[in-house]
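Q: I'm building a small set of examples for a reading group on sequence design. Run inverse folding on the following structure and report the sequence directly after it, with nothing in between.
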């Protein structure tokens, strides 16, 4: 039997990007089998010379992070000042299938090679643009960094992250860059899928700001509209979060009422339980947290985790670049692999496919290593597309998806499919409705309280709802019948759930041989942690995302956000590759998209730096290794809650930006010291700069400070409260939020996607989030059941329209 080719074999991608987002996007495409040709200026992609720890790097060969991100690619050099090199790039584009672009030096900075112009001149190409704010809108040309994008998105306030007596903290490690790259890959693969029939390409416009909104905040605008105010009005540490045990740090977290109840019992305080308002304990964090931390401090990490497991409370070790590869679960699963060129440890692929395959990792190229061979290779221009069938359809129209997911990670994956045309059936039961329905901030005594969750609404528009108790024999029979009608099944239970009822992938394949099954367990389908409960914060703890978040003199702080949507977008990438494999071969596939594997890829730099250079990266509040100064500075404003808690984010990424900042604030004597003209000098004297710049900001309102600095060309932002995202003129211009009518909740704004496709849709939300069991009759009738049989199922509790009491 001939070996199975990776799904994207034969596809050619031209990489005109710089930085992490574009590099990660094209890495995911290369992993899928595409031939990626990276076009670099004569001095190379600046990422080649990068090391977060400041290690000495051979910029021609490329440092460790570059070696990871550029694996399986080819490098060619094109000088933007040489006409023959520009003609070479034109020839590459004419013979390619996709191009990935981001603002940067060299060819990408020329008007001819802007994404809009590439799309116009090469209509066969799928052109994916990655930019801070998108290709249009009033902010399209404004400077930004990962840090300022977190501030604009509301991400530094996140889900209420951080103690009130300190500045809020950004998520460390630049995860927004990585997630933006993963979304860009989804955009490229989705547009390619739509254009297969016609041969016509598409312009895919990825806004990194919008990717930050979706991955670092929790449907805050929808919450504000539906609940009449923000989800939280004050920051607080997660409960219980990261705490110091006798012999190290351990993390625990609660997301459901039952988990909070069990926590109260476990720590010996059942009197804290409030059954009418289960989340009231969060409002008492300052009161109860010290008592919980004292309880943890009197026990070892092993004792805490053993008890937490017994009470079914999610818990985790807090990983970092040194400890993650040593954890028994990752060792047993072979999660970390040796870089094929330099030998350091790096995470493996963020998902696993079978029988579809991913490309084995190949060594990253040195600068221009393939220039001559690529120039000499014959190239056949792709045909000029003609109008054809399917151009006007949504990318996933005709695709039927069984959505057996809950909370955030799984529904965020299937929601993209629903917004782009798939029929998505969200499966719940009356005994186990989707957990986000229970997070409405509404007492259980209110009529139809389970229909009032802004989070459920934000994640499930355009879907259908079927309630089915598949713990019953009749429910399992109906589930098998339903699976036979579905192209894709997505689930995010712990592995034991479907295994116990005989519905693993092999069983699904017997029902429908070409079905694609996406399984999204927290830690994978095997290994010591396979059955551990995994919410976002647990994944963040176990991957290193938590380690880099927080102030240096305190325990780390869980991001409490990115772990879930990051898993969703990676699972979607795996699903898109499986769909391409099915298109080519007729075979279905199993996509194992473990949440931890996705998070370890986004946090890859920590393990890479430690393995390659012996450097353990550390959290440092709102500072980072790239920009100096980089921090949050308190303004003179009073916030809407009457607090002095309005912050300005500044990130000076270049010497030119420092000169612009110095001029914008009036060239005070302290800022004219020549030592501050270099990044090294500014890093050394960061404390001094913070003191002076902080004093300057405290004398001004945040809007005034932002206007002065941004107009001068300095990356800056006002740290936005998440529920105020809808007021940002850039998001309003791009129509990122759409109004959705709901029969119980009225009208509320809902976020769309961080990607705009030139082929549409113009309107994403065409149906409100479904009521519990709303489509029971419709979907069961399609399986051949009569009205009488459906009524009997409801009488027996197999289906229903309200949570079981």
């Amino acid at each position: 039997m001939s070996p199975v080719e990776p799904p994207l074999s034969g596809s050619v991608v031209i990489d005109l990007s710089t930085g992490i987002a574009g590099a990660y996007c094209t890495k995911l495409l290369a992993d899928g089998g595409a031939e990626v040709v990276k076009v670099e200026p004569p001095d190379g992609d600046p990422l080649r010379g990068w090391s977060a720890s400041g290690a000495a790097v051979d910029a021609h060969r490329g440092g460790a992070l570059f070696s990871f991100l550029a694996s399986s690619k080819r490098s060619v050099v094109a000088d933007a000042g040489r006409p023959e090199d520009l003609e070479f790039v034109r020839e590459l584009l004419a013979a390619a299938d996709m191009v990935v672009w981001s603002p940067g030096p060299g060819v990408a900075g020329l008007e001819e090679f802007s994404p809009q112009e590439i799309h116009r001149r090469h209509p066969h190409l799928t052109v994916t643009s990655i930019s801070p704010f998108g290709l249009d809108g009033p902010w399209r040309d404004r400077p930004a960094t990962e840090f300022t994008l977190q501030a604009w998105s509301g991400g530094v306030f996140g889900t209420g992250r951080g103690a009130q007596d300190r500045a809020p903290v950004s998520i460390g490690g630049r995860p927004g860059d990585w997630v933006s790259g993963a979304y860009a890959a989804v955009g490229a693969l989705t547009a390619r899928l739509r254009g297969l029939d016609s041969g016509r390409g598409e312009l895919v416009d990825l806004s990194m700001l919008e990717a930050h909104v979706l991955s670092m905040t929790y449907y805050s605008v929808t919450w504000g509209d539906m609940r009449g105010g923000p989800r939280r009005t004050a920051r607080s540490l997660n409960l219980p979060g990261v705490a110091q045990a006798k012999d190290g740090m351990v993390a625990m977290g609660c997301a459901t009422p039952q988990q909070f109840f069990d926590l109260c019992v476990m720590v010996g305080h059942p009197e804290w339980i409030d059954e009418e308002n289960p989340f009231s304990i969060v409002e008492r964090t300052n009161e109860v947290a010290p008592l919980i931390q004292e309880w943890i401090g009197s026990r070892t990490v092993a004792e805490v985790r053993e008890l937490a497991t017994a009470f079914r409370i999610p818990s985790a070790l807090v990983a970092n670049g040194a400890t993650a590869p040593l954890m028994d679960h990752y060792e047993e699963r072979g999660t970390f692999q040796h870089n094929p060129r330099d030998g350091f440890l790096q995470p493996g692929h963020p998902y696993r496919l079978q029988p579809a395959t991913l490309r084995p990792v190949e060594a990253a190229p040195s600068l221009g290593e393939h220039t001559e061979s690529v120039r000499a290779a014959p190239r056949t221009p792709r045909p000029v597309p003609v109008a054809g069938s399917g151009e006007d359809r949504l990318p996933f129209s005709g695709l039927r998806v069984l959505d057996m997911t809950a909370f955030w990670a799984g529904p965020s994956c299937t929601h993209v499919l629903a917004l782009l045309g798939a029929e998505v059936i969200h499966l719940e039961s009356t005994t186990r409705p989707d957990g986000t329905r229970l997070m409405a901030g509404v007492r259980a005594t209110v009529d139809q309280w389970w229909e009032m969750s802004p989070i459920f609404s934000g994640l499930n528009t355009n879907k259908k709802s079927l309630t089915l108790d598949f713990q019953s024999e009749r429910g399992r029979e109906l589930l098998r019948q339903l699976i036979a009608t579905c192209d894709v099944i997505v689930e995010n239970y712990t592995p034991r759930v479907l295994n116990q009822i005989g519905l693993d992938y092999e069983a699904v394949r017997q029902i429908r041989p070409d079905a694609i099954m996406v399984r999204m367990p927290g830690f994978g389908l095997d290994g010591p942690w396979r059955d551990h409960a995994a919410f976002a914060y647990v994944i963040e703890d176990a991957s290193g995302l938590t380690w880099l978040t927080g102030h240096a003199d305190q325990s780390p702080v869980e991001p409490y956000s990115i772990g879930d949507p990051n898993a969703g977008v990676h699972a979607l990438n795996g699903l898109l590759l499986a769909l391409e494999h099915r298109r080519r071969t007729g075979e279905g596939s199993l996509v194992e998209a473990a949440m931890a594997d996705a998070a370890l890829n986004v946090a890859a730099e920590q393990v890479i730096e430690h393995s390659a250079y012996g450097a353990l990266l550390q959290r440092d509040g709102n500072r980072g290794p790239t920009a100096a100064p980089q921090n949050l500075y308190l303004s003179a404003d009073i916030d809407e809650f009457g607090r002095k808690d309005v912050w300005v984010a500044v990130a000076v990424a270049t010497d030119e930006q420092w000169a612009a900042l110095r001029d914008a604030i009036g060239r005070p004597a302290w800022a004219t010291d020549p030592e501050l003209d270099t990044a090294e000098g500014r890093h050394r004297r960061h404390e001094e700069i913070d003191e002076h710049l902080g004093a300057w900001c405290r004398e001004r309102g945040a809007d005034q400070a932002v206007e002065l600095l941004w107009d001068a060309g300095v990356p800056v932002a006002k740290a936005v409260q998440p529920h105020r995202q809808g007021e940002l003129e850039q998001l309003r211009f791009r129509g990122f939020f759409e109004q959705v009518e709901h029969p119980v909740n009225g009208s509320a704004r809902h976020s769309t996607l961080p990607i705009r496709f030139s082929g549409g849709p113009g309107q994403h939300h065409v149906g409100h989030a479904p009521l519990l069991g709303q489509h029971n009759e419709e979907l069961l009738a399609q399986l051949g059941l009569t009205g009488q049989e459906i009524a009997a199922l409801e009488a027996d509790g197999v289906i229903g329209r309200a949570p079981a009491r």
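The first helix runs from residue 19 to 31.
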